[in-house]
Prior knowledge:
2 helices; globular; five-stranded mixed beta sheet; alpha/beta; 10 strands; single chain; 121 residues; Hypothetical Protein Aq_1857, Chain: A
Amino acid sequence: MSTSAENGGENGSLVITEEAAEQALGLLRGEDMDTDVAGLRLFVQQGGCAGLSYGMRFDTEPEDDDHIYEGHGLRVFVDPSSHKYISGSRLDFEGGLQGAGFDVDNPNVEAECGCGESFRT
């Protein structure tokens, strides 16, 4: 299943910011991965004090049942069980005094833990 991310943040989509795409593509290229096929896998897993947390890793290609989002040249793979939690979110990259990293702005989150590492929907 393939879906474009550049059509906004409506339900069922994932918006990928230009900064997130640039950072992820640079890392993918640094690992000698083909950015036409490879991408960033974004998933939700059990864990953290609020119950759920995000995970990310690079994959050489999507799985057959993945939702595939594309934005600014970056492909993001989301498995079906994670999709219900991530749908409608915005993937960004933020840097600052506390460090730099990818950030998921998720409208489905009802509560987050105090440190911001886990969430509940």
